[in-house]
Amino acid sequence: MCRNLRDIKSPIIIGHRGYRAEYPENTLASFSAAMSAGADMIELDVTLSRDRKVVVIHDDTLNRTTSGFGPVHQATLQTLKRLDAGSWFDPRFAGESLPTLEEVLILTEGKILINVEIKSSAWESGFPEDAIERQIVDLIIRHDLLNSTLVSSFHAGFLENIGKLPVHPEIAFITDRNAPQNTLDVCERLGVFSWHPHYKSLEQQHIEKAHARGILIFPYTVNPVEEMLMLVNMGVDGVITDDPGAAISCLFANRGTPAYISPKD
To answer: Is 58 a catalytic residue?
Structure first.
């Protein structure tokens, strides 16, 4: 596993919400499974609880992935911790709880790269002292994970604020299928480490132009094997996938040797 963003050897495998294909997303079980499978990075989503704790969950509401209901931001961490975040996926994961970001950082202990996505709904104008982006950066620094953690968002404001801090991790900009034509200009202005486009919006020219500006590309959410192979052959630097185990089997005959490259005679 790669432990430093500067040591990335393309293509890297990024577990989307951990190992979402086989485990309840954004749980410690899912992240542990992605690590065991050999993923290079795990991707996770964060927002704030009512008492302003950084919690790991994708949706703005609790309904889909927990035993609770209603907006996440209206529940305290204590309430969130009592919810079952595993049974919805499979009864064998009953009792799996929503983790905090700090719990994930402790779990990984620098053994794997981490991509922390800040949900746009957590945005607050004025950049308060306990803004979610400040809390995330403080946690990353406290756990000595600056070199192995990437903070990403669809909302450029978070990335701009992080860039203002005296010490901060690398940042990444995410775009949907309707990415604006000036996306790479925005990426360059923000000083991003990588751009995370929807894989169906990506063209060869985008990859070439991004690389010319020193920007890596990690498209999401790439699950079909044929799409993974196509994107890697196009030159992407990694893929964000729900099934890191399948991605590794697809792209690497032996870990470290891409399966899509034919050996020289």
So the answer is: yes
Q: Is 198 a catalytic residue?
A: no
What φ, ψ does residue 114 adopt, rounded to 5°? -130, 135
pLDDT tens profile 205-242: 999 999 999 999 999 999 999 999 999 999 999 999 99
Alpha helices in 10-125 (DSSP H): 28-37, 77-81, 101-108
For residue 122, give the nearest of 202, 50, 227, 36 by alpha carbon: 50
Residues 186-213 have pLDDT tens digits of 999 999 999 999 999 999 999 999 999 9
pLDDT at 252 over 90: no
Is CATH 3.20.20.190 what the domain over 5-46+100-258 is classified as, yes or no?
Answer: yes
CA 244 to chain centre: 13
> What percentage of the chain has pLDDT greater than the value 70?
95
Q: Which of 58, 155, 196, 206 is catalytic?
A: 58
- CA pair distance 107, 43, nearest whole angstrom: 14
What predicted TM-score, i.e. pTM, was given to this entire model?
A: 0.95
Strands 54-56 and 41-48: antiparallel
